[in-house]
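RESIDUES AND SHAPES:
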Amino acid sequence: MLLDLSRFRGTEDHLDRTYPPDAFDLKGEEFRLTAPVHLVVDLHKDGRKIRLRGRLQTTLETVCGRCLDPLTVPVDAPFDLMYLPAGESIVQVRGGGNADDDGTEVAEDDLGVSFYKDEVIDLGELMREQFILALPMKPLCRDECAGLCPVCGVNRNRDTCGCRTEWTDPRMDALRRFTDQS
């Protein structure tokens, strides 16, 4: 899934590729791919600057943050990224001063900048980043998910339990006994 930039002689190119889910090494991630990944990219070269604009489409599976049931997340993620050669800074490419100046301000447009090395961009890493960005911070199977019982662990969406989940502060026992005597 490496994009060899030395193959591109013009200033623009178009890629349209589909990758099977097993082409990705996602060990240790909190999700898995359940559908092929469709990647469409328009590549624009401007000297050593490379701009990739495109869209990524697939389906991820993760677990609900409350009940731990499987949850599918459709991904349709547009992206617009600038790539610079490794070792160069944004300021150097723009023709500004020394990149080590303490007063260098990072513009909002510069936040989408990544770096490539040896004339190669790793599309696998680009797609992995897009997968992570597409996941919700707190994945829920539905808004009204009741979650798991903190005492017995039963899934409250499917079963009920008689567990008492009200917590009482043991430091207040003395006060509670005092009010019970009255």
Q: What stands out?
A: The first strand starts at residue 2 and ends at 4. Strands lie at 2-4, 12-19, 32-33, 37-46, 49-63, 70-85, 113-116, 120-122.
